[in-house]
Amino acid sequence: MKLLKRSLLGSAAAFAAMGAAHAADLPVKKAAPIEYVRVCSAYGAGFFYIPGTDTCLRISGRARFEGAYQTSSSRQPGAAGDTSGFRGLARFNLDARTQTAYGTLRAFTRLEAASRTGVIHSGTMVRIGQAYRGTGVDELGRAQQYVNVDKAFIQFAGLTAGRASSFYDFYAHDFEFYGATSGSDNSSTNLLAYTGTFSGGFSATLSVEDPVFTRSPVFAPTSAVTPVFVGYTEGRPSRYGTVDTVQRSRLPDFVGALRVDQAWGSAQLSAATHEINVGNLSTSPAAGAGGVLTGIRHANAVQGWGVQGGVKVNLPSIAPGDTLYLQGAYADGAQSYAGYCMIAGCYAQSNTGFDTQKFEQYFADASINPFTGQLQTSTSFSAVAAFLHYWSPEWRSALFGSYGEQDFSAGARLAQGALFGLVNPNGGNSFGPNGVGVPGTRFYQLSQALRDTYQYVVGGSLIWSPVADLDIGVEAFYTQIGVKSGRVIDLDKGPGAYGAIAQINNGSFVSRTATQDSMTHVRFRVQRDF
Fold first, then answer.
1. Where are the beta strands (DSSP E) in 173-264?
2. What confidence tens digit (pLDDT) does each residue in 414-430 have?
């Protein structure tokens, strides 16, 4: 037995020695070294190298709460009449940069998602398909969820391509919560641009931009069609057809900007063109009998345009970080480039900047002359000033204000009034609130359609930043809108006025009138950037 044990142990030792010898001849598979994330200091704080590449990436974001209150005293049927609203917003940023022989190659994306209710809503976001309204009877248009591709662009060797802020913009409500002042602020549009840089901080940009995001409607008295005269009896209009006023996208907006950035601040002069292009005339007359038919041509496309100049002055002599903006703009057939519609949202031809306004403001880029079938553009201008002051590193405040006007083509309202008499021969109002009325009548004198208007805004804010990247602040502003001449029907006091045209004309319907309306808005915000 002892002999057998010694034999087995000897055999095992021999096999172990043979195995060790063979193992020494085999290659050893080592674990791959761990590549730790490295800090990239070439582009500022927060960047790191994507493992295995020479691309630097920064991940950042924002969380925000807002609550708002604004005055409202409406008794209009169906009006929202909300006085409060709330919003929660999430933002995610990715900024990737790579150094190349041609300079920095950059790709930047920003996604936003939010939920908002009450007076914090956006018709513009609904129009461009970024917001989704609540569908309940009480929530229609007053509760919104939205997901927005706010930024997605590439920059390389002077080229910018993708979704970015318009190169036309300058101040763009930098110091405001709501963005209530006039002035262009097209923060998300699709574009292709080239920027050339020169010595002394000078640069010049040429940009081709999406026209949809700067479009205001062509005035249409009813739905999306505009009547025009196509027949005359004894020299007087007796028939009308309709023009499809839905705008077509054919040419992009062309934007040019000259800019200088130096230690004292910056300045910019920008200009833009915007084509207005509508559909054809209907083939069959819609009213009247007999008479001579005229050959109304297709409405010719019109090139609207806008110009804007602004200056930003750094004022460290008052306090570090203090800044003053001054900006002015003028537009013909492209009122969004003057930013006259900012308080209300540039998405409807007639709109209110706050729920239950006494009368509607008209923001149409153009109207169609019913005698010629051709487009007549509107004009607008705006002026804005904003000042940011740091009381201490933790406390800052802003003061801002603007004034703007919009005027419609001379004779445009009178021409629409002549058409109103033919389309509504019995004194009805198939045009709804967009009815101009028959010239010479009391209703024509008081109707709100195509009235020249003005608006001004004054406001301020106070923000506390107890720690870096945390803002707790409040903003308040007052806005007033009004007609430049005459009076209009007060829809708050006479909500049924537009259904009582004949009674207004014969004096049996007493309607309150107004020349202006105003609103005060207060907003509280808590915001954390990371």
1. 189-197, 202-209, 225-233, 236-244, 253-262
2. 998 888 878 776 656 66
